[in-house]
Amino acid sequence: MNILIKAALIALPFLILQGCLSTERYEMATDLNATDSELARLLILANTKDDTEEKEEISRVAIYAHDAASAATKSGENKLALGYYRIAAIGYWRDDIDNNNQKLFDVVKASEEICNKMSNKSPDRDCFVIRFTPLFAALEEAFIKAGVHIDFATASSTEKKNKLELLLKIGGENKGGVDFNNGALSNLVNQAAAQQDFLKKHTSLNEYVCNNLNATFSKYVSLISPFRSKVEGTVAENQLLADHPFYKAYREVPEDQVNSKEERVDHLISSKVASCKKGNEV
Amino acid sequence: MDILLVTSGIKAALRAAQAGIDLYVERAEDKAIFLPNVRLPPATISDEITSLLNDKQELRTLLPFSHGWDNVDFVWNSPSELNKQDCIVRFIEFKSAEVLLDVADDHKQQLIGGRMIEQWRQDNQPPTAWARIALTITDIGLEFVSANPSIMGENSQGEALISAFANNLTTLIPDDVTDMGNRHDFESRLIGIFLRAGLSTLLEDQGTIIEDDNVEALIKGIIKPVNDNLPNSFQEQIEYRKLTEALMGPSAAAALKILSSNTKGFLGNKFANDTALGAVTKAILDASANTATDDSIATVFTKNGVTTLFDSALAIAIEKPQLFIDDEGNPKSELLTDLFVNTAIAVKEANNNGFDKNLGVSLSAMVISTLGDHAEFLVKLDPDKPWESVAVQVIQSLTTNLSEAIIENRRLQLFSQEQQFEYARIVLQHVSATPSMLGTDNPEYQRILKGIAEVMAHDDNLLLSNNEWILIAATAAELAAVNPERLFGLDNDNGIPDKLAITALKSLLTITNTALTSAPQLPLRGYTLSSTMELLLKALSGNISSVANNPALIETYFSQLIEKVENDQASWGSESIVTHVRETIFEVVANGELPTD
């Protein structure tokens, strides 16, 4: 037999195998790209509308990505699967559909297994974002429920009580339990602190986390401050500060070191999450 | 070829392709993504006043703001509805009075509401894309080593070649995955093909020297244009990939060989010029474009044909890069594209009349090579007519004339294709020694080709072998080149009969044929006849005073000679006939004195 034909026959199974694998991977990567772009488009579009209506389009992208992630996992494409899981997680977070909350946890659970399996080869951003998405979602939901400032002139005492309870879900201590919003800001700060060494080496993710911590904490201070102001100098003030340890810590930042809300927030957050301290970027 | 080497090559090509796909997938997985910010309740008027007082410290202690300002929280909390209204009024006054700084940025941030996040932290980033491809290239090298260890020792040429490819990868791989578009695996395949060709070249000749700069030039000048020109349409891509992948391997090997041999000599170009190579590559791609059209070279020729043309032009680009670069250093490829396209048209037309395409390709490549060699002279002779234009005309003329000659001439049909090519080549080569004769205004080579063929047509009895006819054509071309128009000219007004050589040779052939019909044993065939013809051509290139006045003199001379041979066969063998002709023919054509003994 001709030597070239022999060689080709030897290589043929290899060629066919390679061809199949390559095509599938290429198609999945192209699809991941397209799904990513579509999610980004919908998120930016939703931001411009600034509402909390249910977003079916984002939900559809999330569900599609969720299915694609499962398929990629079955194909052994773990990194691609995590890319899809990350899209699904963000989608379930931002679709404002309560019924999809459980799916978010399903995504976190499924991807957690892959991230652990991949160990130090797991994709940094995707694993981090998936793990943190429930924290962002919980905090966001707590803020949405807490709503805008209370009008002390017209609000009833029940309304004031309810509002204060909602603020507790943002800034109160996390006491465990099953409440989705329990101590949402504390949770996020504590989890970020636990990841501060990682964040120090990941500039864009660190900036994202720190900026969001600062912005949410600043908003939380604006919301809680009027309640404390109304009971200033009383036992109730001490109780409120005890219930809101981060707020208390905020007020205890030495005055000589700060001269604005931004500086004080920054000081507090950096004291809790070292990677947020200015000049800490690698 | 070693079977291990063949399988290595296949595996290497597959690995290169796989690396390209891996790279694409990795880019998709690792590209920066948009992560939205945590949404917060919209800002209230209290938030706006808080923000103002944080920016303007001096307002914090002034009424009405001072009443609600909390200097620990740095928050303004309305103490009463009345104070709130006062603060709002003052707030609006301040906002109206000053242009808000960075309002556009704030608005933009609000609209975007998130940021782009990279995949990897700094110390955890996998090898960059080009490094991964470089690793693949190293792998390919190792694949070859296992099949043929001799090319890859320390400081070997194989090692140098691998390094050179790795060093020049940044030319090919874009920084952004979106720039790769549909070329995700194409460039890797090209590199694989090229590298394999390079290593194979080293295997064939271990004395080959391939400099790093030459590899750079080859990547920039050949691989990159091929890669960049990949069309968008899927259907076109299929054709294009088939063409370029077939083209690259052989052409890469040919270019490397030329470079290597050029580098060896003291006078050769040490390095290839990527602009010149790029001009040639672009020209062949442009000429191959639109493969659906009938005139594309990819449609007219086989892949081997296109490769042959490409190689002939690459050889010129390596040896004379200046021919493909304009005064401002830009590549010149339009004329070469025209040359390729018109070559295809000429060969296609000839093919329609039964002319073999492969012969057409070989002829065209030969013309390109020959005229490229003389390009500077041609430009000097006529600055308005670049060598590419002359080459087009020569190709058209050669294919037409040879095609017609073959169709009309049964004797020429007995030539193998290789001999037909050699017949044309030898004529053109001798004629091109005098570049001024290549212009269409002076189509001497056409007259020689047709003229010798016309004589040959009378060789019904196969008195001369094919190779002897080729030698006669060579002699005729050599002499005609230094005696323009004398031997094969028409409408001469210089006292020399038209088609002097053709008439004389035909006369000789006719007389010989007649003699052999009645006396086939006469020693007039082969060597005798071909030597006599050559001597006759030489004599006609000298003093022809008598023949010019009396063309019949030739016929008389040879008739007498053959009569003598017939009458005294013992005295006349082939050698004595040739000697006799050598001693007498010059006098005959000059003075008209026929030998008497």
Descriptive report:
The complex is a heterodimer of chains A (282) and B (597). With 282 residues, chain A is mainly alpha-helical. Chain A has 12 helices and no strands. In chain A, helix 1 packs parallel to helix 3, helix 2 runs antiparallel to helix 3 (78-94) and helix 5 packs antiparallel against helix 7 (184-194). The longest helix of chain A is centred in the N-terminal third of the chain and has 47 residues, at 3-49. The termini of chain A are far apart. With 597 residues, chain B is mainly α. Helices cover 66% and strands 2% of the residues of chain B. Chain B contains 27 helices and 4 strands. In chain B, the strands form 2 sheets. Chain B has a two-stranded antiparallel sheet with strand order 1-4. In chain B, strands 2-3 form a two-stranded antiparallel sheet. In chain B, strand 2 and strand 3 (75-76) form a beta hairpin. In chain B, helix 24 runs parallel beside helix 27 (574-591). The longest helix of chain B has 31 residues, at 234-264. The radius of gyration of chain B is 39 Å and the shape is elongated. The two termini of chain B are 66 Å apart. At the A-B interface, helix 1, helix 3, helix 5, helix 9 and helix 12 of A face helix 1, strand 1, helix 2, helix 5 and strand 4 of B.
